[in-house]
Design a protein that fits this description.
Layout (H helix, E strand, L loop, with lengths): L3 E4 L4 H10 L8 E5 L11 E4 L5 H7 L5 E4 L8 H15 L3 E7 L10 H14 L3 E6 L4 H4 L2 H7 L2 E3 L11 H12 L8 E4 L7 H12 L5 E3 L2 H10 L4 H15 L9 H6 L6 H9 L1
Parallel strand pairs: 1-2, 1-4, 2-3, 4-5, 5-6, 6-8, 7-9
Helix pairs in contact: 1-7, 2-3, 3-4, 8-12, 9-10
Length: 282
């Protein structure tokens, strides 16, 4: 059986991928590649130290890895260089296939995140290593993470207008990654992955209202006003601009996809919005 390496395995997505892989292949076939091995002892698989910013050590860590899941770095602005370190190390170590978590419609998206993902896709194309692109859409948790704050404030705020958001739960994307990594028929594919159910932020607010019995409206703001509101809540200016910009891209349809490729890959419908809201409400 192929030896499967997962980078960022102690992250929110990585942990779920490891869990899903262990349902599809023996635990001894899975390797967690992590910056801090001490945080991975509960994963139940082999753990190797793996820091995107230390290229001199990456080749050794990838020895014996056949299939590599490259989960994109969480250091926005540093991603291209860090991913290039991993891809070069994979060449050195003889990795036979790289699966990369990219961004939904990365080649046409106006999201500020798209550039680094596209650059990584180009690095993969030039590497000579067979690859597969998992162009992941938004995680529903990106929005439900702010449910508690919205309830406390009495409203959701944003700049997404009536843009449709086809998000899915993080576990859905993790399951798709595990399916792909354990079936070589998925080599050389580009998958646009998104949830089955598209909603607006007003729909999200309505669902939270329904489940809590409280009136929690969605207040749509001009992008610049949303930036200032986020800054007033203590967010750094660069992050406030990024978040508001992502909403502006959502308003343009950049978080929408109705191909149902994700549910096809995992063999069942993606997690409903109502279910993820319920989890967020505890």
């Amino acid at each position: 059986m192929a030896k499967i390496g997962v980078t960022g395995a102690t992250g929110q997505l990585g942990r779920l991928v490891i869990k899903q892989l262990k349902t599809k292949t023996a635990a001894e076939n899975v390797v967690a590649l992590v910056r801090n091995p001490g945080k991975a002892i509960d994963l139940g698989v082999e753990v190797r130290a793996f820091d995107y910013t230390k290229p001199e050590s990456l080749g050794e860590a990838l020895k014996g890895i056949d299939h590599l899941l490259l989960i994109s770095s969480n250091e926005v602005g540093q991603r291209k260089a860090q991913h290039e370190n991993v891809i070069r190390a994979a060449q050195q170590a003889g990795v036979s296939w790289i699966v990369y978590t990219s961004l939904l419609h990365a080649d046409t998206s106006t999201l500020s995140l798209a550039g680094e993902h596209l650059a990584t896709e180009e690095l993969l194309k030039a590497s000579g290593i067979p690859y597969t692109l998992l162009r992941n859409g938004w995680y529903t948790e990106n929005y439900t993470g702010s449910v508690a704050g919205a309830i406390a404030a009495g409203a959701f705020i944003g700049s997404a207008g009536t843009g449709k958001i086809a998000s899915a739960a993080r576990v859905d994307y993790a399951e798709a990654a595990a399916v792909v990594l354990t079936d070589e028929s998925h080599r050389s594919k580009v998958y646009e992955l998104a949830g089955d159910e598209a909603y607006t932020l007003a729909d999200l607010a309505a669902e939270v209202s329904r489940q809590t019995g409280k009136d929690i409206p969605y207040n749509d703001l001009p992008e610049n006003e949303y930036v200032e509101r986020l800054r007033s809540l203590g967010l750094p200016g660069s992050l406030a601009h990024a978040i508001a910009g992502w909403d502006a891209s959502a308003a343009k349809g950049d978080l929408f996809d109705d191909s149902h490729t994700l549910s096809w890959l995992i063999g069942h419908p993606t997690t409903p919005l109502a279910d993820t809201v319920k989890v967020a409400l505890g």
